[in-house]
Write a structure and sequence with these properties.
About 55% of the residues are buried. By secondary structure, the protein is an alpha/beta fold. The termini are far apart. Helix 8 packs parallel to helix 9. The strands form 4 sheets. It has a 4-stranded parallel β-sheet with strand order 3-2-1-12. The chain has 11 helices and 12 strands. The chain is globular and about 50 Å long. The longest helix has 17 residues.
Length: about 325
């Protein structure tokens, strides 16, 4: 029986409760996502990731948002506090590779083997502040080059990258955590600017949707739009494992179960549910159902890229990264 088509993050604290363990064992999500509320120390985090995998009886993917800047769940004093990506984009591809490789090594050391990065949205003057400095640049070629370096760095650390937010969040002037952003740009402009970095990295194993309505293409938000998911598959050419952005965000309408149903019906492979109680997660698990045959194929292809970190001296890599970024600090 395939795993359930969910990635669940409804873990309340730093240890798995008996009720959570029993629920995850029965629900059998494809993977898990962790947040700052789940992070205390390296030893504690290793125990938690071990407990999650034990609950489902397999080496399930465990992901996190560890971009740098405002969006990083593992912080000092136990982990390095990374600057926001846009603040150091000028240091170039090698510096970006080093940065995300070192982030990946930090994650793998505590049992986390996926990272919801790189952010391939193209920053613009009016990009909402919640997103802007999380981007890699203001033109698609730079974003693609630096995004590729970041993804390659994580893969070399044994961490699966999740590129986001497909097919592009950079034009949004609203925060999708609080409402549905609407983008009115013509389709040709979107194709040349917003979609281009994702097309360049379409071979990556995993991606995440954007909760954005593109009026030139459809009235529904991309996450719940069969037309937009078809665009991601056909026009962008991405055949990797596609998860929703967090369906508890207020950009989407309906109950969480209705959002999950709409996302799977639109063509998403996985539903990402980040904040919820066991009763709310139960409804989403029931709505999402098991992985489809295509989703299982894509999941297997992604898992095949999950390898042990390459041999390297982390201290030497950090010294090189500091040298390369000194001029843009």
């Amino acid at each position: 029986m395939p795993a359930n088509a969910t990635i669940l993050g409804g873990i309340a604290g730093t240890e798995l409760t008996r009720a959570e363990r029993d629920f995850f064992r029965a629900a059998d999500p494809w993977g898990f996502i962790l947040f700052g509320r789940n992070v205390e120390s390296p030893d504690q985090l290793r125990r938690l990731t071990d407990a999650l995998r034990e609950a489902v009886g397999r080496d399930a993917v465990i992901t996190v948002d560890q971009e740098g800047g405002r969006v990083q769940r593992l912080r000092g004093p136990h982990w390095f506090d990374w600057p926001a990506p846009l603040d150091q984009a000028a240091a170039g591809p090698r510096a970006m590779w080093l940065r995300y490789h070192l982030i990946g090594r930090e994650l793998r050391a505590v049992g986390i083997d996926s990272n919801c990065a790189p952010t391939l949205d193209v920053a613009q003057d009016d990009t909402h502040p919640f997103l802007r400095n999380r981007c890699f640049g203001t033109d698609p070629a730079t974003v693609a080059t630096l995004g590729r370096a970041a993804a390659d760095g994580m893969l070399a650390a044994g961490v699966l990258p999740v590129m986001k937010h497909m097919p592009g969040h950079g034009r949004a002037v609203a925060d999708s955590h609080h409402g549905l952003p609407t983008v009115t740009a013509p389709a040709d402009d979107l194709d040349a600017m917003d979609f281009a970095p994702f097309r360049a990295l379409r071979d990556l194993p995993m991606g995440m949707t954007a909760h954005i309505r593109f009026t030139a293409l459809d009235d529904a938000p991309a996450t719940a739009s069969p037309r937009m998911i078809a665009l991601i598959r056909d026009r962008i050419g991405f055949d990797g494992l596609l998860m929703t952005d967090d369906i508890t965000m207020n950009a989407l309408s309906g109950t969480e179960a209705e959002r999950a149903t709409a996302s799977i019906a639109a063509g998403c492979d996985l539903v990402l549910h980040c904040n919820g109680t066991i009763p709310s997660m139960e409804q989403v698990v029931a709505a999402a159902g098991p992985l489809s045959l295509d989703a299982q194929r894509r999941a297997d292809a992604a898992l095949a890229l999950r390898r042990a970190p390459q041999d390297a001296d982390p201290d030497a890599l950090m010294a090189e990264w500091r040298d390369l970024t000194a001029a843009v600090a």
